[in-house]
Write a structure and sequence with these properties.
The structure holds 2 protein chains of 2 kinds. Chain A is mainly beta. In chain A, the strands form 2 sheets. In chain A, strands 2, 4, 5, 8, 9 and 10 form a 6-stranded mixed beta sheet that branches. Chain A has a 4-stranded antiparallel beta sheet with strand order 1-3-7-6, with no helix packed on it. Chain A contains no helices and 10 strands. Chain B has strands at about 5, 10-15, 20, 25, 30-40, 45-50, 60, 65-70, 75-80, 90-95, 105, 110-115. The chains are: A mainly beta, B mainly beta.
Amino acid sequence: GAGVSQSPSNKVTEKGKDVELRCDPISGHTALYWYRQSLGQGLEFLIYFQGNSAPDKSGLPSDRFSAERTGGSVSTLTIQRTQQEDSAVYLCASRAQGGYGYTFGSGTRLTVV
Amino acid sequence: AQTVTQSQPEMSVQEAETVTLSCTYDTSESDYYLFWYKQPPSRQMILVIRQEAYKQQNATENRFSVNFQKAAKSFSLKISDSQLGDAAMYFCAYTSWGATNKLIFGTGTLLAVQP
């Protein structure tokens, strides 16, 4: 597509429920990143995918967080047993291999009540 | 570990005036990229300007320019002839050649433009 698409745009969930956030990167972009932006904070790196390589999961805050990328394209970030501190905007970005043009989506605002 | 610091949580500028946003970073790498991103209420991060560390010349994009001081590890953004549409959160970011090329962000500066 023309840009990075994220869905849903907003998600309200009850504490303890699982949620799935979706990112559809720019076609042909091999690198995909997930970031978390908490209120008043900068962006915190969560996970990185590059082609068929093993993902860099070093930023995931707990084992309740996981992500996968199917077919080198669409990625899903899953948060299990959501907690109130998970409330944040989750941003996805993609990048062409060897390039430094990062394109961001508009994010998913997650609210845990 | 690399870090990016933005010491100005909020700034304000009059329309048509000039404002400078500060950013410092810490790294032991010699080859890296620095970025300024704008985040309006729509939440999408929009690239304002990018600087390659090996280039001594400061990057410019129309009304936006940077003052890159490599030895001081400083990377400030100057916005000239400020417009109402410039009002947004501005983030400074860093990345270096490496396995992930992940962006490391500062905490942002909220810029208000007064008419």
